[in-house]
Design a protein that fits this description.
- This protein is an alpha+beta fold.
- A 6-stranded mixed sheet has the order 4-5-1-3-2-6, covered by helices on one side.
- The protein is globular, with a radius of gyration of 14 Å.
- The N and C termini lie far apart (34 Å).
Length: 137
C-alpha cells in the first residue's frame, strides 16, 4: 500500500521505528491542501492538512505493509481522531490521514516541530515551507 506523509511521519528514523516494513519512495506535492497544526483538546497542535484550492502540501510517499498500516491507524487515532482519504497517482491509490470533527489551530511543541524538520531534511523537502507555516502561529 502507498501512504502519503506530511508531518512527523516524514522523519525516516521515526517511520522505521513505527513501521518496520516501510520504504520511502519519493517526494510529492499534494494539490488542493494546506499544511496546518491543529488540536482537539486545546493543547499543542499536530500536523494536519486542510482543503484549500490553489495550495499544495509537501510530503513523501511511502510503501507500507498491512502491519504498518495498522500501526499508523493506532498512532493516528483512526477512526476516532483521523479519517483516511485517498488520491490517485499513475493509477495507484495513495492513502493519507486527515483530522475529523471539530479542531482548533495551535502551534506544535518545539520537540514535535523538530521531528518534522528532520523529516523535511530526510526527504529533501523545502524547509522554508515548514518554517513559514510554523511562524503563522
Amino acid at each position: 500500500m502507498l501512504y502519503f506523509a506530511y508531518g512527523s511521519n516524514l522523519n525516516h528514523v521515526q517511520m522505521k521505528e513505527r513501521c518496520r516494513d516501510s520504504k520511502y519512495i519519493k517526494n510529492y506535492f499534494l494539490e488542493g491542501y494546506l499544511l496546518s497544526f491543529c488540536t482537539f483538546d486545546h493543547s499543542h497542535g499536530v500536523a494536519n492538512i486542510v482543503k484549500k484550492s490553489n495550495s499544495k502540501v509537501q510530503g513523501g510517499i511511502w510503501n507500507i505493509s498491512v502491519r504498518d498500516e495498522k500501526e499508523l491507524d493506532y498512532y493516528e487515532g483512526y477512526p476516532i481522531k483521523y479519517s483516511k482519504a485517498f488520491f490517485k497517482l499513475n493509477d495507484e491509490k495513495i492513502m493519507f490521514y486527515i483530522m475529523k470533527g471539530q479542531y482548533s489551530f495551535k502551534p506544535p511543541k518545539n520537540q514535535y516541530a523538530n521531528i518534522i524538520n528532520q523529516g523535511y531534511k530526510d526527504c529533501n523537502l523545502d524547509r522554508n515551507y515548514l518554517i513559514k507555516k510554523l511562524k503563522q502561529y
